[in-house]
Amino acid sequence: MSDKPWGGRFKERTSGAVEAYTESISFDGELYAQDIAGSKAHARMLGRQGVISPSEAELLISGLDQVRTEIEAGTFPWRQELEDVHMNIETRLTEIVGEVGKKLHTGRSRNDQVCLDFRLYVSDGLRRWAVLARKLCGVYLEQARKHTDVLLPGCTHMQPAQPVSLAHHLLAYAWMFKRDVERILDCEKRVRISPLGAAALAGTTYPLDPAFVAEQLGMYGTFSNSMDAVADRDFALEALFCGAVIMAHLSRFCEELVWWANPQFGFVTLSDAHSTGSSIMPQKKNPDVAEIMRGKTGRAYGNLINLFTTLKGLPLTYNRDLQEDKIPFLDTDKTVQNSLALMADMLAATTFNASRMRRALSAGYLNATELADYLASRGIPFREAHHITGRAVALAEEKGVGLEDLSLEELRSLSPLIENDVYTVLDYDTAVRRRNIHGGTGPESVSFQIRELEAWLSSSLPWEA
Ligand code: ARG
To answer: What are the Cα distances from residue 159, in Å, to 156, 164, 360, 364, 425?
Structure first.
């Protein structure tokens, strides 16, 4: 005889190996709070609809509260043979409240139940990410405010290209994380939809009120099709994508920190608290946090592909394959949360070395575009101005100096249109200051960006309002 909650039609016990292989309690126990909240809303709705009596509903709700207390106190008796979080909680509830516990599952299947739990869990995770990403945005902003006058080489192809302000460089990341938050908010609207009432796959004959359940749980709405409700996991794919993009953004900044912390750059000094040493080379101070974060990005991408692969070709509706959906999300959730929080701390504690950045401006002819634009402004077609500037660069390179170190005679030998005012144009600060065009690196553009981001950061998130 089987002693499983579903064991009525079984004559033999499940083998131990099968129990161990099919269980999900080792990971879906994480969803206990969402499972209990969902069950409380379901019980309340059953009571309101007259499917169970109001006093039975009350009993179930207080029993569920007790289960939660036991779980949080660490005294809950988790049992692998009960497969998953749902049956563990329901079984314990019945031990606590007696026979009425067996009424909780009326009009419900684990198929809609697990989907509800997971949707709530993913939504809660997304909300935490949004808060953390905004916080990180705030740290970029803070560092940008402190470094509006600091210039460094802006690169393309990892080659010196044009001077930019450090504030502008840092704000580029602030805008990325702002978009990440917006992406989360948009995604969360589709995630926080209740599938409860879809039952196994076809809906139910009980007079349930799915909208009431959704409202109780602070969800935005309910499912429209019971088959879609239990089979769909695109909400989790979207969330995993949001997480993958966050990690992509983090990994790019990590890469820059790794370069910048190298003494040949010397642009940043990481705090001791965020660096590690070498077991053999005493002088080493390694940017391991940035490296590990860059490394974990691969895991987050993998988690997205993991779920995509589970879903590929999966017929309607619920298939047990779907039990695998939680593992990638749980992993990405932890990675994204830890990475965003740690990056905020690390960035706040990073020292930017303005003089090293300034010194780096002199290598790589970062003011060459200025000379070309100068010539173009004197009527020379830009292509030709580009060519003349190239010759100036070659001359400076031959002499081992910067363009600004060439004498006026040398410059005029390349074009008689060059006058003494060229040296103002070749100045790195001038080059930055002249770029106040919308979105440019000029100081006015940068303070406009700062104001925009400040306004956004002072607004509240939809669920905080
Ligand atoms: N542990 C299962 C999961 O995570 C719960 C749903 C089980 N449903 C079923 N029909 N066996 O997907």
So the answer is: 6, 14, 12, 8, 21
pTM of the model: 0.95
Question: Which residue owns the Cα nearest ligand 1 atom 3?
Answer: 323
Structure tokens at 199: 């039952």
- CA-nearest residue, atom 4 of ligand 1: 323
- Please, which residues have CB within 8 angstroms of residue 356's CB and are 6 or more apart in sequence? 265, 266, 267
Is 226 part of the annotated catalytic residue set? no
Residues 6+ apart with CB under 8 A from 144: 166, 167, 168, 170, 171, 174, 446, 450
Catalytic: 86? no
Distance, in Å, from the CA atom of 298 to the CA atom of 389, rounded to the nearest integer, reads 43
Rounded average pLDDT over 366-379: 96
pLDDT at residue 132, as a whole number:
98
Q: Which 8-state DSSP code applies to residue 276?
A: B
- Write down the residue that tokens 């809660």 correspond to: 124
In sequence order, the 6+-apart residues with CB closer than 8 A to the CB of 21 are none
What would the pLDDT profile of 147-158 be if each residue is shown by its tens digit? Answer: 999 999 999 999
Query: Does residue 322's CB lie within 6 angstroms of at least one atom of ligand 1?
Result: yes
Catalytic residue among 15, 157, 407, 438: 157
Q: What is the pLDDT of residue 232?
A: 96
Alpha carbon of 363 to ligand 1 centroid (Å): 62
Prior bond of 369 cis (ω within 30°): no
* pLDDT digits 0-9 by tens, 79-97: 999 999 999 999 999 999 9
Instruction: Establish how many alpha carbons lie within 13 A of residue 407's alpha carbon, considering only the half-sphere containing its beta carbon.
Output: 4
Give the separation between CA 361 and CA 235, rounded to whole angstroms.
47
pLDDT tier for residue 1 given thresholds of 50, 70 and 90: low
- What is the distance between the alpha carbons of residues 27 and 22, in angstroms, rounded to a whole number? 12
pLDDT at site 447: 98
Q: Would you say residue 403 has pLDDT above 70?
A: yes
| pLDDT value of position 240 | 99
Q: Of the ranges 3-7, 390-394, 406-410, which one carries the lowest mean pLDDT score?
A: 3-7
Report the separation in Å between the CA atom of 22 and the middle of ligand 1, taken as the mean of its atom positions. 10
Pocket test for ligand 1, best of 14, 83, 90, 110 (most atoms within 8 A of CB): 110
230 CB under 6 A from ligand 1? no
**Separation between Cα atoms, residue 394 and residue 57, nearest integer Å:** 84
Q: Is the CB of 113 under 6 A from ligand 1?
A: no
CB–CB of 316/225 below 8 Å? no
Mutate to test the pocket of ligand 1, among 105, 232, 323 (most ligand atoms within 8 A of CB): 323
- Residue pLDDT, tens place only, 59-74: 999 999 999 999 999 9
